[in-house]
Specification:
single chain; 100 residues; alpha+beta; Elongation Factor Tu (Ef-tu), domain 3
């Protein structure tokens, strides 16, 4: 499954710095991922993905967030620097499920 979408970067509320920056996957696609992942999830309900933002591609995990009713994707600092992104910016991205 490959998902292409635009999302705003946001900071995890528990942190005061930009070390925990995320985007939320669309709710509808998150529901599909939950169904597809079934019992194949890893720690904390995570699902392995390959992500592309701009010219940056990396492998990471998405995590379920019950308060947002979707999966959330961490955007690591190296990618944010390479793509000149910060919290509040909207980025176009492609997320591909890896182990499903």
């Amino acid at each position: 499954m490959v998902i292409e979408f635009d999302a705003e970067l946001w900071l995890w509320e528990a942190r005061r710095d930009d070390s925990w920056t995320f985007v939320s996957l669309p709710v509808e696609e998150s529901e599909e991922i939950r169904e597809m992942a079934g019992g194949q999830r890893h720690g904390f309900g995570s699902v392995r993905v390959r992500v592309t933002v701009g010219s940056s591609t990396w492998t990471t995990s998405i995590f379920p967030d019950s308060t947002r009713n979707c999966y959330v994707l961490p955007i690591k600092r190296a990618v944010r620097r390479a793509e000149d992104l910060e919290a509040g910016d909207v980025a176009s991205m492609t997320v591909e499920l890896v182990d499903i």
